[in-house]
Amino acid sequence: MEAGAWWDFRRSAIAVRAMTEAAAEHGVDHRDVSAGSGAAASDPADPAVEIDAHQELAVVRHVLGALGDRPSIAADVGSRFTLGDYRQLRFALLSSPTLRAALDGEPASR
């Protein structure tokens, strides 16, 4: 069996939540955004829910198809993420003495 692409891994559905919310503010129904992606069956607000990369990309295509080429949509979607959405990064920040140590993967001192 051949290994998948580096980006092809299961991930949190949090990005789908952010894209759905942003699209809704521009008048796009959440069902249109997630149609055919398989992401609609799960609750994207639940941080435990995971989706495939292909599902996330399908939502991206639907959002861009519905809203067109709006440079502000990326900033709008990105502004919806919080530190809490990045569970591993949050843990690293909380358990490291400095930001640099967290990003370098240095273990916390005892």
Residues in helices, as a percent range: 40-55%
Distance between the termini: 43 Å
Q: Based on CA inertia axes, which overall geometry fits?
A: elongated
Strand-residue proportion: under 5%
Unreliable spans are none
Judged by helices, strands and strand pairing, the structural class is mainly alpha
Largest sheet: 2 strands, antiparallel
Mean pLDDT: 82
Radius of gyration: 16 Å
Spatial order of strands in the largest sheet: 1-2
**What sequence of helices (H) and strands (E) makes up the elements?**
EHHEHHHH
- Summed up, the helix count is 6
Q: Quick one: how many beta strands?
A: 2
Question: Nutshell version of this structure?
Answer:
The chain is mainly α.
From the structure above, extract its key features.
110 residues, mainly alpha, 4% strand, elongated
List the helices and strands and how they pair.
Elements (H helix, E strand, L loop, with lengths): L10 E2 L1 H12 L4 H5 L15 E2 L1 H15 L3 H8 L8 H9 L3 H6 L6
Antiparallel strand pairs: 1-2
Helix pairs in contact: 1-3, 1-4
Describe the structure.
The protein has six helices and two strands; from the N terminus they run E-H-H-E-H-H-H-H. By secondary structure, it is mostly helical. It has a two-stranded antiparallel sheet. Helix 1 (14-25) runs parallel beside helix 3 and helix 1 crosses helix 4 (71-78). It is elongated and about 45 Å long. The model has no long low-confidence stretch (mean pLDDT 82).
